[in-house]
Amino acid sequence: MNSLSIFFGVTNYEFRMQIRRRAMWIIFFCLALLSSILGGPGSAYRQLIDNPFNLTPLQVVAYWTSTVNTFIPIILGIMLADRLARDKRTKVDELFMTTPGALGWRIAGKYVGSLLATIIPVLLFYSIGIGVILFHTQNPIILLYALETFAAIALPGLLFVAAFSIACPAIMWVPLYQFLFVGYWFWGNLLSPAQGIPTLSATILTPVGSYMDAGFFSDPIGRRHATALQGVESIVLLLAITILVMFVLWTLLKWQQARQ
Amino acid sequence: MSFTQLRYELQLMGKRVILTPILVMLAYALIATYMHYRNIDPARFLASSLEIILPLAAAIIATTITSQDAAIELQLTVPKKYHVTVSGRLILIALWTLCIALISGITFSALHLGFIPQQPQPFAAPVAFLAAQLAWFAPLLWLVGIGLCLAMLIRNRAASTAALCGVWLLEIIFKDYIALTNWLHPVFLFPTTLLALTGTIPQNQYDIWLSSRLEVLGTGLAFICIGWLLLHSPERLLKASSEE
In terms of residue numbers, what domain contains B138? Predict the structure, then answer.
């Protein structure tokens, strides 16, 4: 069987399995609802219209992308964490071992398919804010800005989080991973170094995308100061670690298969 | 629940349930030691372990154990009701977390690392001790309660955990808004660490802190009651297991 057809086949089925999970849609719907209520009715979106920091349209879009990227990756990471464990629980991993398809392509297909399906509700949630900005400014260039900021600020972090969420449950209990992941997200992204606690949040290894936001769109709220080069470094580092994690997963699963 | 059954339930849940809270506290102890050597007071950081992190760990474990049972079909055929079995498991998890939190809290106080608000006219020692424990006990009960409800309503392990963690994170991100909004005080989970309430604070602030702890305790108990009622229809979990 052609490797590419295996990859597309696995991607297709993983995508369909994940996109049909009603629970995933319920969670994103609840999140959209909560974000509209907390901070006062429509508060999260009202700021995009009121523009209290006098941001340019591009910066307003970048601000919304950063806001979404503060907590959405947690939901994405947790929803992806049971994908590999599910294969073991339903014993299909043993069935896969008897098929001729290469393990690497199957892992890649699982990663791409389940990630694409989970990104769709993320994009829908994201487009609520973009819709509000578009309605307020009546400027279609907002759509281009939305694509640009999502690709620069959010996407590298989502790819990074997805790789860990697919790979780590291969070596640890899924709920333990979910707990550690949530703790990591708060510690490694949102915790200020001023607290005195050693943290990664001030380094370029922050999937929350603050270096990209500050480097490319000069975050005027002053949450972070960074150059464009640091933004690029952050993206490269996140993508390199993503590839490394998937490679380690492939090696580990191959080793586990050889031992059986 | 007999001793044999208790032992059996513990074996079923596995060492990971027992070890998780211990490992969390050990990791905290290591980082606190590092902070101490850098001349940074670790009291607030240690308080976060009891108030914010340990309840989350207990709630995720409770959500997982409630929403998934490998032998659910078998469970439904035996005379013992499913809600009794799950209640026993949840009590085990809560009691174990309680033990770890109590021992840790007493150790922090003994090392003069306590991070608890006090009123100008302090209570008698036993009452003050109990009031101080509310700082972590109230969010523990609340998060386990809502975890139980989410597990039974959403009927999906990953999704209910995601919802639980979403609530946990929103509590942290919107702490200032929740603190300033009176009607949200019954769901204000982590004021002690996040608002840095320690030492002797004005009486009116202490009263707000104490009443919000009691309100969180009340809403937590309400969630546990609702979750317990939802546990009476475990057939729903059968359908859920095929949807994962």
Answer: 3-239
d(CA A27, CA B155) in angstroms, rounded, equals 12
User: Which among B53, B63, B166 has the least Cβ separation from residue A31?
Assistant: B166
pLDDT for residue A85: 85
Which residues of A, range 71-130, sit inside 8 Å of B by Cβ?
A: 71, 74-75, 78-79, 81-82, 86
How many domains would you assign to chain B? 1
Q: Which residue has the higher pLDDT, B5 or B21?
A: B21
The answer to whether residue B155 is domain-embedded is yes
In chain A, the residue whose alpha carbon lies closest to the alpha carbon of B57 is A179
Tell whether A138 lies on the interface with B, counting CB pairs under 8 A.
no
In a domain, B28, yes or no: yes
In contact, B145 and B229? CB cutoff 8 Å: no
Interchain proximity B165–A82, CB inside 8 Å: no
For residue B100, give the 3-state DSSP assignment. helix
- Residue A174 and residue B168: Cβ atoms within 8 Å? no
Confidence of residue B188 (pLDDT cuts 50, 70, 90): very high
Question: Is B8 in CB contact (< 8 Å) with chain A?
Answer: no
Res. B38 pLDDT band, cuts 50 70 90: confident
A71 interaction partners in chain B (CB closer than 8 Å): 166, 169-170, 173
Contact B159 A27 (CB under 8 A): yes
Distance in angstroms (rounded) separating the CA atoms of residues B61 and B55: 10
The answer to whether A26 contacts B38, with C-beta atoms less than 8 Å apart, is no
Instruction: Say what the ipTM of the complex is.
Output: 0.81
Amino acid at A27: I
Residue (of B229, B14, B207) closest to B119 by Cα position: B207
pLDDT tens across B132-187, in order?
A: 899 999 999 999 999 999 988 887 888 888 889 888 988 888 888 888 888 889 99
Exposed / middle / buried, residue A202 (Cβ in 10 Å: 0-12, 13-18, 19+): middle
Q: Scan residues 5-64 of A and list those with Cβ closer than 8 Å to B.
A: 21-24, 26-27, 30-31, 34, 38-40
Q: CB A31 to CB B159 under 8 A?
A: no
Across chain A, which has 260 residues, the per-10-residue mean pLDDT values are: 84 93 84 71 71 82 89 90 85 76 87 95 91 90 94 95 95 89 89 81 89 84 80 96 96 86
Out of B35, B159, B177, whose CB is closest to A24? B159
Stretch B16-30: mean pLDDT = 89
B146 lies in some domain:
yes
Residue-range domain boundaries for chain A: 3-188+200-259
Secondary structure (H, E, C), A168-210: HHHCCCHHHHHHHHHHHHHHHHHCCHHHCCCCCCCCCCCCCCH
Is residue B244, in this structure, part of any structural domain at all?
Answer: no
